[in-house]
Write a structure and sequence with these properties.
The structure is a single chain. About 80% of the residues lie in helices and about 0% in strands. It is an all-alpha fold. It folds into two domains: about 1-45, Homeodomain-like (Arc Repressor Mutant, subunit A, Orthogonal Bundle), CATH 1.10.10; about 55-210, Tetracycline Repressor, domain 2, CATH 1.10.357.
Length: about 210
C-alpha cells in the first residue's frame, strides 16, 4: 500500500509539472524532489521521462472512464445519460485542474507522447458517448448526428473552459472594472466564473436543443 501511495504522489506531482511546462519543459529531477523521492526511486517505480508521461495519461483517462462507467445508469433515458456523461467528465476536470492543460498540450503536439493504451481508453470514452447518441436515434429521441463532432463540442468545450481559468479570471476583473453598476458587474463576472458542472449542464442543454426530435 505504501508503494502505491508513493506512486500516486509521483504521478500527481508529475501531472502538474507536465501540465505547466509540457513534456520538453518538465524536469524529472524537479518532479522527484517535489514528490519526496530521488530520481533512482522514480525510475525504479515508473520508468524514464517518457514512461512517466505515458503513465500519467493512462492514469488520468482510466479514472475518467471508470467514473463515467460507474455512474451511467442503463435504465436512464438517453437524455439523462448524456447529462450524466457530461457531469462526470466535468467533475473529473474539477478534481484534477492539471488534466485539461495536459490534454490540450498533447492535442496541440499531435499526440506525440501518447501511447496506444491511452489512445485506446480515449476511444472507449468516445464510444460510450456514441452509444448514448445512437440509442437516442434508435428510440426516435435524437436526430442522426456525427458522434465525434458531439464529442469534440462537449469534451473540447469543457477542457478549454477548465484550462482557461486564469484567463477567465483576468477577463472577469476587466469586465468588472468597466462596469459602474455593481449588480450588472457581478452578473457579467458570473459569465466568466462559473462552476464547471454548471457549464457542462449548459453545453448539454445546447446540444439537446439541437439534436432532440421535437
Amino acid at each position: 500500500m505504501e508503494c502505491d501511495a508513493k506512486k500516486q504522489i509521483i504521478l500527481q506531482t508529475a501531472t502538474r509539472h507536465f501540465a505547466n511546462a509540457g513534456f520538453d519543459g518538465a524536469r524529472v529531477d524537479e518532479i522527484a524532489a517535489e514528490a519526496g523521492v530521488n530520481k533512482a526511486t522514480l525510475y525504479y517505480r515508473i520508468g524514464n521521462k517518457e514512461a512517466l508521461y505515458e503513465a500519467i495519461f493512462v492514469e488520468i483517462i482510466s479514472n475518467v472512464l471508470k467514473d463515467i462507467e460507474n455512474n451511467l445508469i442503463s435504465s436512464d433515458s438517453p437524455e439523462q445519460q448524456l447529462k450524466s456523461f457530461a457531469s462526470m467528465f466535468a467533475k473529473s476536470l474539477e478534481d484534477n485542474p492539471s488534466m485539461a492543460p495536459l490534454i490540450l498540450r498533447e492535442i496541440a503536439s499531435g499526440g506525440t507522447h501518447m501511447n496506444d493504451q491511452a489512445i485506446s481508453k480515449m476511444h472507449e470514452i468516445r464510444s460510450i458517448l456514441s452509444a448514448i447518441l445512437k440509442r437516442g436515434e434508435a428510440e426516435n429521441i435524437f436526430h442522426p448526428t456525427n458522434p465525434f463532432l458531439i464529442h469534440i463540442l462537449l469534451i473540447g468545450t469543457l477542457n478549454f473552459y477548465s484550462a482557461s481559468a486564469s484567463i477567465r479570471s483576468k477577463l472577469s476583473q476587466t469586465a468588472t472594472q468597466e462596469k459602474n453598476n455593481e449588480a450588472e458587474s457581478d452578473q457579467k463576472k458570473n459569465k466568466f466564473i462559473q462552476p464547471i458542472e454548471e457549464v457542462a449542464t449548459e453545453v448539454v442543454n445546447l446540444i439537446l436543443n439541437s439534436i432532440r426530435i421535437k
